[in-house]
Design goal:
single chain, six-stranded antiparallel sheet, elongated
């Protein structure tokens, strides 16, 4: 026995839908089920689409995409229509999506599967008898389960209405739906389906005392069933002329009741006559109850979203007027849970001196209290900055302000209050903050940091450096805290990035793995040189997409819980004639990479940060051994300053030239007049090899006396000749 004979015997057809060619291939049984002659056929996609209810066909794409993602079969319930728009039968399709790649590399899908009629006899109606025998009550129960699940998952009023419009009731499916709400003493049309735009006009803002079925349903809370046009005309003669033009044969108006209160009405209209048997009324009543609950949930969720969105917009500042020579972009993404409000913020503050300040901060927690403290702290920081205080003074005053807020006495005892909530409200909170004062004319930045992640600089050629800055405790921990400042310059074409830890740690990452992910995005992101700051806006989108987009779920960090947190990020670009943010080769002369650091006597631990800076500066250097040599010499030079002098070490490093032929020059300055001299340490000596290292590893080095102190420098050339060459240049030195 052939497979085709078996499938035909059980009324099952085969079909193939080729998305690439836009054709649908049917065997004889599949063609019969679609209302065509019972013979094999190849139809254009448009012709096949015309055989199905448009709502059902539109849902196929979503089902196929889900099946592709999960590696499962795509199963869909479809209503077959005739040329006059009547439902002939309901069929179920089960198919396997097969991936096909075109010659151009584009991915298309081909569906191969079966199509079979579903048993849906129409109790109490005049519909034709189906050749398939089935249990209508069991079909009804399955429908109600599916409808309840779909309505429960709807998150907005529009989504609820879309689900209601797509419901295919067993045995009788309405082709016209409308949901009415209440606005005072009048009806309002929340949404409708199966009507033309503008058809709802006469029914909008209809008074509740109008002789209209929906108005009576809202007034009385009782359903109204109108099986024939004559019944409609007899009971509601005043509004019958409004309904007559839609060409319906039967209507059902049901109240939408939540917690004993009628919030609206639901109308289901049918082109074919429906007698509204007890079973049919039971299905409609159950759907109306589920629809009312779904609309109530969606309304509450939309109110919460509107509240939180308004709260965020009121607390998040506008970036303000344009700053000459500077471009700013910012993003704020609340955490995915709860009310989606938190303690992250950013601000741009014009200063009396003509400069401006960038502020980014993070109040502990991401709840309503954190958002409230954030709003108060942001206003306080803005006020202190507007008074003209320096960055360190602004943060010192802000710390004292936050400590005072969190140490306020708890509210008086009240039996109506939640003790746990009061305890949390009075508990201390801290905040991290980074304050940057910028001179737009020179690009000079003065930074004060309170426990916040360090800023990041993206150089004009795409090299990314995390700039270590001096810092103090987070705000609010100790009221009187000093915050040292760090000064450096933002060169033309360079971009400064400030962010909260949410951008780094989202997705289960820690500070190290999260920074590695962001650095790859910053270096690889092709932001272009668009006009009006578009290149910076694209870079901001790339950063957020990297941690919140679909690809981020495949790059989870070492923390298994996938911690989520609010995200705030601010980008500041100092414009140049041809801004090089992410555009390799945009400059006729490759810009110089430069970094400047100060290592204080009291902070020897920052030598490790100096070594990291040099490695990041030379991340694409051709010879890794030269990179190791540079790191070793820099470490030796800075350590010598801290050990043998009483002052701080100032390091300036710059790499210039084209890749493969670059020159690295490093200078370390101090306030001591004592010049280094060559020693001959013994085998077991732990020091005295600094000059020997310079002679062996540097292509050139020297010491330049200054008015107060000296500067020790060395140079490395990327194409330095190997040690075995006889004509290798002797290291040059000067003292």
């Amino acid at each position: 026995m052939r497979t085709e004979d078996v499938l035909a015997a059980i009324a099952t057809g085969l079909w193939r839908w080729d998305n690439a060619s836009g054709t649908v291939t049917l065997d004889g049984e599949a063609a019969r089920l679609l209302g065509l002659p019972a013979e094999p056929a190849v139809l254009p996609e448009a012709a096949a689409r015309a055989r199905f209810h448009p709502v059902d066909w539109n849902e196929i794409n979503g089902i196929v995409n889900l099946a592709v993602a999960e590696g499962t079969l795509a199963e869909a319930r479809l209503r077959v229509m005739d040329e006059d728009g009547r439902v002939l039968r309901t069929v179920r399709s089960r198919s396997r999506p097969l991936e096909n790649r075109t010659a151009e590399g584009r991915v298309d899908y081909e569906l191969v599967g079966t199509i079979q009629e579903i048993a849906e006899p129409q109790p109490g109606t005049t519909a034709a008898h189906t050749p398939i025998t089935g249990d209508w009550r069991r079909s009804r129960e399955a429908f109600l389960l599916d409808a309840g699940r779909a309505l429960a998952e709807a998150r907005s009023t529009a989504e609820v209405l879309r689900v209601a419009a797509s419901l295919s009731m067993p045995g009788f499916s309405p082709d016209g739906l409308a949901v009415f709400g209440l606005e005072g003493e009048r009806l309002s049309v929340i949404g409708h389906h199966g009507h033309s735009p503008g058809d709802e006009g006469p029914f909008s803002h209809m008074a509740l005392d109008t002789d209209y079925p929906a108005a009576e349903v809202v007034r009385t809370g009782r359903a109204i069933y109108l099986p024939t046009p004559e019944e409609y005309k007899r009971r509601f003669p005043v509004t019958w002329p409004l309904a007559r033009g839609f060409g319906r044969a039967s209507w059902a108006f049901l109240p939408l009741i939540v917690a004993g209160r009628t919030i609206g009405a639901w109308m289901a209209a049918f082109r074919h006559p429906v007698t509204f048997s007890p079973d049919e009324r039971s299905v409609l009543t159950t759907v109306a109850r589920m629809l009312a609950q779904a609309l109530q949930r969606a309304g509450v969720a939309e109110s919460e979203r509107e509240l939180t969105t308004g709260l965020q917009r009121s607390m998040m500042p506008q970036l303000g007027p344009e700053i000459p020579g500077m471009t700013i972009a910012a993003r704020y993404v609340p955490t995915g849970g709860g009310l989606q409000v938190g303690g992250d913020w950013y601000d741009v503050i014009p200063l009396p001196s003509g400069r401006f300040a960038l502020v980014i901060g993070d109040v502990q927690g991401h709840d309503v209290r954190a958002a409230g403290l954030m709003g108060q702290l942001r206003i306080a920081v803005r006020a202190y900055a507007s008074e003209g205080h320096r960055p360190d003074a602004v943060l010192s005053r802000a710390s004292r302000f936050l400590a005072g807020l969190c140490s306020a006495p708890p509210a008086p005892d009240d039996e109506s209050c939640d003790a746990d909530a009061d305890a949390d409200f009075g508990s201390p909170r801290f905040a991290t903050c980074l304050y940057v004062e910028c001179d737009p004319g020179t690009g000079t930045l003065e930074i004060a940091r309170a426990g916040h992640p360090d800023p990041v600089v993206r150089m004009a050629d795409g090299t990314v450096l995390m700039r270590p800055t001096a810092g103090g405790l987070p705000l609010g921990i100790v009221p009187d805290t000093d915050y040292p400042t760090t000064r450096f310059a933002l060169e033309p074409g360079e971009t400064l990035m400030l962010c909260t830890d949410g951008l780094i740690e989202t997705g289960g990452h820690d500070l190290d793995t999260g920074w590695a992910r962001l650095r790859a995005v910053l270096e690889a992101g092709d932001t272009g040189s668009g006009e009006g700051g578009n290149h910076l806006e694209r870079l901001a989108d790339l950063l957020v997409q990297a941690v919140h987009g679909p690809s981020s779920h495949h790059t989870t960090g070492p923390l298994a819980d996938r911690r989520e947190d609010d995200i705030a990020v601010v980008l500041l670009c100092r414009e140049s004639a041809e801004c090089g943010c992410g555009t390799a080769g945009a400059h006729p002369v490759r810009p110089v990479r430069r970094t400047l650091l100060t290592v204080a006597q009291a902070e020897p631990a920052r030598i490790a940060g100096v070594r990291r800076q040099i490695r990041e500066l030379l991340h694409d250097w051709a010879d890794t051994e030269q990179v190791d040599s540079a790191v070793l010499m820099v470490s030796e030079m800075v350590t010598n300053v801290l050990v043998h002098t009483d002052g701080d070490a100032l390091l300036v490093a710059e790499a210039a030239g084209e890749p493969g032929a670059r020159r690295l020059r490093v200078e370390v300055a101090d306030s001591s007049d004592e010049l280094p001299h060559k020693r001959h340490p013994g085998e077991m000596a732990s020091s005295g090899r600094g000059v020997l290292l310079m002679e062996m590893l540097a292509d050139a080095w020297g010491v330049d006396p200054r008015g107060e102190g000296k500067s020790i420098w060395f140079e490395l050339y990327e194409q330095a000749k190997p040690d075995g060459d006889e004509d290798r240049e002797t290291p040059r030195s000067s003292a």
